[in-house]
């Protein structure tokens, strides 16, 4: 039974019906649809459309329907109705007869669907934000567990300067912190109330939309009915938040994929989050991280898909907007999965302290900045000149094969007489990190403080 039969003589073709129907995916809105319907029933009762008794019967039937929908779960998608709104209305009429036909008074599927979608999106954002927080907690836990481990920090994927492994962990915790804040901020614009906008011009019944908004726990009632039913910027913004978070997770995954390769050997992934090769018996593959990296592509795809759907639409509602849902549902599902994967990966990660330190020293040229800084602070050499002198020491290392920190006092003196034997104390990864004792720097004390602060903010108990 379609909701719009009266004007039609002919039947929709099976192909058109398959093309047009959305129940297959929008069944996910059923909770929100029923909730919104209960509030709408109350609003039109106050507007004189329903008696108190009718409202009570409608509300009870909607509650029953909610329970039935929850029992059906995804099978609701196979029920053959045009969309979730049609499913609810058909079943409501089956329960309460003609009274069920009154619920849609003053309402359109246009204001209904974006109300539903906003309710769904609010819930999704709250869940995703909790996933982000859990990932942050694992990063902070890992930073604490592996405190003191030095490793190379990279620029251009070339060894740059030693850093603490914990500092690396906290870098991603910071990114995720902003992702959580972005979700929070989006909520203020997602949680608006379109209901009462009707098809496009506003409902013809005297509904107190501000009261409806308060009752539904939303932030504000939309101020323009065309905008309310015709825009999906709230979906776009949510997808943008999802995309940004997924890009951060992808970069984290890429770092760890490199670090767990034989070439780096900094970390070992747990068997529980790795898979093997059907051909090469020795392989242990970081599939959990590779999929994390790939999911960001999928989520960015959703963002671009919606942008493209929206960009040329005349006001107000167009059926094109039905295509807002699958990208959103898909992104929400897959970002949720990706976030859920992170704690088990991080909590079981083995950090190979010796390999990290060995790489943070290598041939010692990673400490060239220390040599330059030594000259600046010891002899007042201008940094540009100190840089040049340290560069000569690097050349000597490269030509003799003697690590920078193993050059003799003699060799250092021959490069520049101002380099004394006290230089060796500066040429260790530990000395290098200790010197970065500035807010945001990698010195152990600074990192400890960041860990403690983050743990407190996130409610992490440090062992
Ligand atoms: N399934 C539709 C959607 O997702 C519901 C709104 C239908 N409105 C309409 N005028 N046909 O957008």
Arithmetic mean pLDDT: 97
CATH architecture of the largest domain: Up-down Bundle
What is the CATH top level name of the largest domain? Mainly Alpha
Query: What spatial order of strands do you see in the largest sheet?
Result: 1-2
Question: Could you describe the 3D structure shown?
Answer:
This protein is mainly alpha-helical. The protein folds into three domains: 13-105, Orthogonal Bundle (Fumarase C, Chain B, domain 1), CATH 1.10.275.10; 110-148 and 156-352, Fumarase/aspartase (Central domain) (Fumarase C, Chain A, domain 2, Up-down Bundle), CATH 1.20.200.10; 359-458, Ribonucleotide Reductase Protein R1, domain 1, CATH 1.10.40.30. Helix content is 60%, strand content 5%. It has 18 helices and six strands. It has helices spanning 14-20, 23-26, 30-46, 52-72, 84-96, 109-145, 165-190, 209-215, 225-230, 233-259, 287-310, 325-347, 353-359, 368-379, 383-400, 409-415, 429-435, 444-458, and strands spanning 150-155, 158-164, 192-193, 220-221, 267-268, 350-351. The protein has a two-stranded antiparallel ribbon. The protein has a two-stranded parallel ribbon with strand order 3-4. Strands 5-6 form a two-stranded antiparallel sheet. Helix 6 (109-145) runs parallel beside helix 10 and helix 14 crosses helix 15 (383-400). The longest helix is centred in the first third of the chain and has 37 residues, at 109-145. It is elongated and about 100 Å long. The termini are far apart. The model has no long low-confidence stretch (mean pLDDT 97). The site of arginine has 10 residues, from helix 6. Arginine binds at residues 22, 26, 83, 109-110, 113, 317, 319, 321-322.
């Amino acid at each position: 039974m379609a909701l719009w039969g009266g004007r039609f003589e002919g039947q929709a073709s099976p192909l058109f019906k398959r093309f047009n129907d959305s129940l297959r995916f929008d069944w996910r809105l059923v909770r929100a649809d029923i909730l919104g319907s209960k509030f709408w029933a109350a609003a039109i009762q106050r507007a004189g459309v329903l008696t108190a008794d009718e409202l009570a019967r409608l509300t009870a039937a909607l509650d029953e329907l909610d329970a039935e929908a929850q029992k059906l779960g995804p099978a609701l998608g196979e029920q053959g109705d045009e969309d979730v709104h049609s499913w609810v209305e058909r079943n409501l009429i089956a329960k309460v007869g003609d009274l069920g036909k009154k619920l849609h008074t003053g309402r359109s599927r246009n204001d209904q669907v974006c109300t539903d979608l906003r309710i769904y999106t609010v819930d999704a954002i709250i869940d995703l934000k909790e996933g982000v927080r859990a990932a942050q907690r694992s990063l902070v836990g890992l930073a604490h567990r592996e405190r003191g481990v030095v490793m190379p920090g990279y620029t251009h994927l070339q060894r740059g300067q030693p850093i603490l492994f914990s500092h690396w962990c906290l870098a991603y915790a910071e990114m995720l912190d902003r992702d959580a804040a972005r979700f929070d901020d989006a909520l203020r614009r997602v949680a608006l109330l379109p209901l009462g906008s009707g098809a496009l011009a506003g409902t013809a019944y005297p509904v107190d939309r501000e009261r409806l908004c308060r009752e539904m726990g939303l932030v504000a009632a939309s101020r323009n009915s065309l905008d309310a039913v015709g825009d999906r910027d709230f979906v776009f913004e949510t997808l943008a938040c999802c995309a940004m978070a997924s890009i951060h997770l992808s970069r984290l995954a890429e770092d760890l994929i490199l670090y767990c390769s034989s070439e780096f050997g900094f970390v070992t992934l747990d068997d529980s989050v790795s898979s093997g090769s059907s051909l090469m018996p020795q392989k242990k593959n970081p599939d959990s991280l590779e999929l994390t990296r790939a999911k960001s592509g999928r989520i960015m795809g959703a963002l671009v898909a919606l942008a493209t759907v929206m960009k040329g639409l005349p006001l107000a509602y167009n059926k094109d907007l039905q295509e807002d849902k699958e990208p959103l549902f898909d992104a929400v599902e897959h970002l949720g999965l990706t976030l859920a994967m992170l704690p088990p990966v991080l909590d079981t990660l083995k950090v190979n302290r010796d390999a990290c330190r060995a790489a943070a020293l290598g041939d010692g040229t990673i400490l060239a900045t220390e040599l330059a800084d030594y000259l600046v602070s010891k002899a007042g050499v201008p940094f540009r000149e100190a840089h040049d002198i340290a560069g000569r020491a690097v050349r000597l290392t490269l030509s003799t094969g003697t690590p920078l920190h193993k050059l003799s006092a003699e060799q250092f003196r021959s490069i520049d007489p101002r380099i004394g034997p006290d230089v060796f104390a500066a040429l260790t990864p530990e000395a290098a990190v200790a010197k970065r004792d500035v807010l945001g720097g990698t010195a152990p004390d600074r990192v400890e403080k960041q860990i403690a602060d983050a743990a407190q903010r996130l409610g992490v108990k440090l062992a």
